[in-house]
Amino acid sequence: xxxxxxxxxxxxxxxxxxxxxxxxxxxxxxxxxxxxxxxxxxxxxxxxxx
Length: 50
What we know:
Blueprint: H1 5-17, H2 28-42
Helix pairs in contact: 1-2
């Protein structure tokens, strides 16, 4: 499982960049950080606004 974290993070990031509003993951804590960072890089707020 630890070997898949980077791949999952990349897939989550790409999904968000392409417009996903919901992602399903097993490691919620780690992926929530990826989601927040990706949103910050894209200039989005928690409610999806820019």
